[in-house]
Structures
1.
Amino acid sequence: MSTSFALADLLTSGSWQEDAACRDADPELFFSNDETDREQALSYCAACPVRVECLEHALATREAYGIWGGTDETERKRLLRRRRRAA
Ligand code: SF4
């Protein structure tokens, strides 16, 4: 499975994805284990006008890999746990 292709597909599918700051970025940055790549991906997210929408999508679909909405896998797991406890 290549998750980076999934991101590329998602980012051409319309709605909020059309405003994504990472639209023309290398998707590999968002799924790399290299810390420099991940920091670069997060810098796109920091300036992204659809960060909240992206994060909510990743949480709703339980995206297990990559940088989404300015979060990594561990941060999303933490957010989901916190939401479950608050529900
Ligand atoms: S928040 Fe990050 S991953 Fe999501 S669309 Fe924006 S730049 Fe891309």
Note: Residues 73-86 form the longest helix (14 residues).
2.
Amino acid sequence: MTIAERRARVEYDQQNPWQPMSEAKIEDTSTVCTRNPQGDCEEPPKTKGIKRERLIFSLRAAVKSKANHTTSQKENRRMVFAGRFFPVFDTMPSDEFITRWREHTSNTGMPEEFESVSTTKPAQLENINLLSEEIAVPIKLRPGEDRVPCPFCAPGSPKFIRGRMAYFPDEKAVRFIGHKCAQSHFGDNFKLAEAVFRRQTMCRQYIELWREIGPRYGDMERFLDVMSKSAVDLQFVRDQLDKQATGFAGFLHGELAQVRGELFVKLDLGIKDRNGTAVIQEKLIGTAAGLRFLSRGYDVEKRIRQTRSALSTVEVELPEWIPSSPEHPATAEILKRGRLVEKSIQRIPGLLADINDGLLFLRRKNLSLIHQWGNRMDTPFARFEIKSDDRQMQVRSNSFAGDHYANVLIPAAAKLAPVKTPDPAIEQLIRMVA
Ligand SMILES: [Zn+2]
């Protein structure tokens, strides 16, 4: 840049601090990735003897906007490509800025032309902050459907479709960069930037989660109350069974799991075939519930207690937070509390299935189905009996796993109908964290 140009630019910047000095059009597009001319900057390009910073562009637009500019047209053509440079971000741009930039990009396909977006080659390679995930630019909206220029390897030349918005705090600037190019230029710094970006993204999601749970908290508490009552009583049944007939639940679980709960019995049809052999038919009598209830480590009472305790932390607001560089001091707390609540909500569907399976197992119809199956021909049981009345379940079994006997009490909430799936509001929360 000549002294005259620099002076002109300073003057212009003073008058128009948010506008670029020029919207330089490219005449010389000699920077192309020779290895991957159409690709997304996988390799830094060759520059055919011209330093990338010294690309030659016409500055017609600049001249138009600066009528009193003293440089001649001929000299203009020899000018160094300056690009747009806006060192205006003392702090990381707000989410609101990024949201407007996203809208602009999807409406125009021109991410690099949004206010205060710089297009010059970055001078810093460390301490970069990513401001967006990979974004595919709708290049069909661009003049000539050109690709987006890459500030790194092709400032001013069509280069990439997928890119990422980044903040360069030392330069106080933001740039939209080709995603592969960024990766190859930043190396380990890129991995670090990626990790910080993920943490910030999670903070935003957890803040949003708190906002979503707020009005649904009462409904969720009531729903967990219903689950909790049955969980406590089911656990009481299972614990008695394990105490009185140690090993029986595991044995029955193994037998049922082999057939995935599908219970077949052999029926003697009472007729004989040509050879005089009795005709036996296999018949599916039903599918048994209980594979979850009988499984090892069934502990719905403890799990629902943990879930409720984790979810109760939602009642305490998260601290104030904004994306910043360096990372906002509240980040670690938000991530820790957010993860705890997120995991608890993620566990609700599995917990609900375990509780409902216990309720279905104890139904009289299910137990009589298992009883019928346990007394079929060719069973591993020398004797098998399982039955229930209003208050208790009786088990008598003699098999290679040993002799088992139990008579366990069934409290009221273990006899309830399965808990219905949560209402749409809670289901939405579950989908949010799925
Ligand atoms: Zn590039």
Note: The pocket of zinc ion is lined by residues 41, 150, 152-154, 159, 178, 181 (CB under 6 Å).
